[in-house]
Specification:
By secondary structure, the chain is of the alpha/beta class. It has a single domain, classed as Rossmann fold, CATH 3.40.50.150. It contains 5 helices and 7 strands, in the order ααβαβαββαβββ. α5 links the parallel β4 and β5. The longest helix is centred in the middle third of the chain and has 14 residues. The termini are far apart.
Amino acid sequence: MKGYPARMSRPSRGLSIVAVVVIFAAGPATAQDVPFFETPRAVVDTMMRLADVREDDRVYDLGSGDGRIVIAAAVGHGAHAVGIELQPELITLSNENAEKAGVAERVEFVEGDLFETDFSEATVVMLYLQPKVNRRLAPLLLEQLAAGTRVVSHRYEIDDWDPVERVKVQGRWVFLYRIP
């Protein structure tokens, strides 16, 4: 994985293990950590339904790819939505897609690292991130989000969190969580 040693020797003391974990957890996200995979329309619709997205919501999609979840929140639900994405070419594509959908004034796409982003104003957070990224992100979600904020994860659960609801659509799991 880029930015991390391909092979690490086994630490001889517990303290070394903790230090390695802290360094890994604090590191920035990379395109390898958060690759772009398209979310099928039926899954996007299910994510919106589970989160009960409404006009007064502020939806954040962490790792927004081509913008389809952000755009769906604005088009189908009238919500203001923000996409956080590492790859500038996907930000450009997202903005083009928002223009075509007629919702450019209701959405925003920000080029940035989701681990260095303030998403505390979100009422809904959407995720399609790998398990290791969800693990790293969980403490930030708990730290930044208000009680009752809905978090929806496509495909991968968030370790140690109990979903309020889980639905299988087109062979893929979608999980709904609420911040306590």
